[in-house]
Amino acid sequence: MELNQYAFGIDIGGTNTKIGLFDQDGKLLGFKKMPTLKEVSPAEFVERLSQESEMLLQSIGTIVLGDSRIVGVGVGAPMANYFTGRVEFAPNLGWRDVPLKKLFEDFFKCPAVIENDANLAAIGEKKWGSGKNLNDMVLVTLGTGVGTGLILEGKLYRGHDALGAEGGHILIPHSKNRPCSCGGINHLESYLSSKGIQQTIKEMTNQDWSVEELGEHFHQGETIAINVINQIAQELASGLATMGVLFGPQAFILGGGVSKLGDSFNKILKNKLEEVIHFSLRGKIAIITATLSSDKGAVYGGAAHIFDEVNK
Ligand SMILES: [Zn+2]
Hints:
Layout: E1 6-12, E2 16-23, E3 28-35, H1 42-58, E4 70-76, E5 80-81, E6 86-90, E7 95-98, H2 100-108, E8 112-115, H3 117-128, E9 137-142, E10 146-152, E11 155-157, H4 188-192, H5 194-205, H6 211-219, H7 223-247, E12 251-255, H8 262-276, E13 286-289, H9 297-310
Parallel strand pairs: 1-4, 4-8, 9-12, 12-13
Antiparallel strand pairs: 1-2, 2-3, 5-6, 6-7, 9-10, 10-11
């Protein structure tokens, strides 16, 4: 690879969009966070992103979009289909049948790939983060929703038509019947999304703590916070046990807000997992915190993906 290549990683979320400019070693050279504009057309929004990206380029020197040193842009968006390059329907954004890959290629004047954000985070961890030496791993992002990215035999697994790898919607056994954002009942996301965790906190403590506040009370050793942590660890362990027996990963990598709970949470989770996982896998799957960033995982992953794509 020639020296000084650059790529953009862009994560389009329901509320905010993040843009990162990277070099080929995964060094973040520039970053910008802006609201996701839903009142304009997708084309106008991508044009705005290209203008913001051009400004990031100017901060590193005299380089403009279209320069051959820019290898491409990797974009994360809800319901993004890598194979078709389109977003068929994304209710959060109000998008229907958007040719997202083509819009990025037109406005950024370089190759583009699109994926869902958890897939990107998995690719990023594999190339530059905790998953560097792993061939089989499941990345679990615990944020507004629960996403999973599967690296199997060294490669991202998407399923037919990019419809697989949606571990957030695994059914978990539970005494409650809590709805999921998708309309299902008792999915992993019903309990492990930020909203799900906050609901559990409310039910168990009658407090309105955020996930961060739960973490603070937990680290101070408060019994009620420890009880909540045990409960959510048990719910997460149920989901991981199912994924474990299906994919036999070397590790689960946890990203997103909950990953900030750190090693003490991972230890509790590991113990719960050992209790429920199939005996053949006991003691064999590590639980690791994502290292790239709890809130920029898909941005790193977008750049990692396009570097891999153009150099394969
Ligand atoms: Zn669901």
